[in-house]
Amino acid sequence: MQMQEVKTRGPYAKGVAKREEVRQIALETFARRGYRGATLREIADEAGLTVAGVLHYFDSKEELFTEVLRLRDAAAVEITGPSPRDAAETLIRVVRHNATVPGLVHLYMALAVEGAVEGHPAQDYFQEHFASLSDWIEGEIRELQSDGRIKLQVQPEMLASIFMAAIDGLQLQWLHDPSIDMAERLSCLWNELILSPEQT
């Protein structure tokens, strides 16, 4: 009985490991080659698979691309730390880092639009992504409001939504004009919402 269990687990574990390897290769390929330059063929070659072999581990290329975004988010922990407290400043650091990987920014923005279509593999990812970010930013805004440090007496969820829109809007502008300093502009927006120490 135990031997049969090991036999069952072996191929499954290898499949999970290979799927993760493909996902990591796809992330690196997008970062290196860009959204237009990265192809399933190149990802497959890097993984020692055929394109059909890649799609054995993912239902579609859209699912693979969505998984790349999930992996990108997990990698952001290396930038932010496991439990960042300052939501705004942390997100500004992430946006600054994003400027070094335009291919992943392009992928994110492309799937953000496509994922709005009902049934798209990225739909759940973006709903979770936006809800998580919103809760995090709202929490910080509530704390700042209770300390009297927010200039605008607006509902936290509204301010969080505006700040998130600024992040994605700046990334879209930056794809069209890489001379834009996204982090600087985002920092300017946030700091304009917060009272100076002399005013508190």
From TrEMBL:
<dbReference type="InterPro" id="IPR050109">
    <property type="entry name" value="HTH-type_TetR-like_transc_reg"/>
</dbReference>
<feature type="DNA-binding region" description="H-T-H motif">
    <location>
        <begin position="39"/>
        <end position="58"/>
    </location>
</feature>
<dbReference type="InterPro" id="IPR009057">
    <property type="entry name" value="Homeodomain-like_sf"/>
</dbReference>
<dbReference type="InterPro" id="IPR036271">
    <property type="entry name" value="Tet_transcr_reg_TetR-rel_C_sf"/>
</dbReference>
<dbReference type="GO" id="GO:0000976">
    <property type="term" value="F:transcription cis-regulatory region binding"/>
</dbReference>
<feature type="domain" description="HTH tetR-type">
    <location>
        <begin position="16"/>
        <end position="76"/>
    </location>
</feature>
<protein>
    <submittedName>
        <fullName>TetR family transcriptional regulator</fullName>
    </submittedName>
</protein>
<dbReference type="InterPro" id="IPR001647">
    <property type="entry name" value="HTH_TetR"/>
</dbReference>
<dbReference type="GO" id="GO:0003700">
    <property type="term" value="F:DNA-binding transcription factor activity"/>
</dbReference>
<dbReference type="Pfam" id="PF00440">
    <property type="entry name" value="TetR_N"/>
</dbReference>
<keyword id="KW-0238">DNA-binding</keyword>
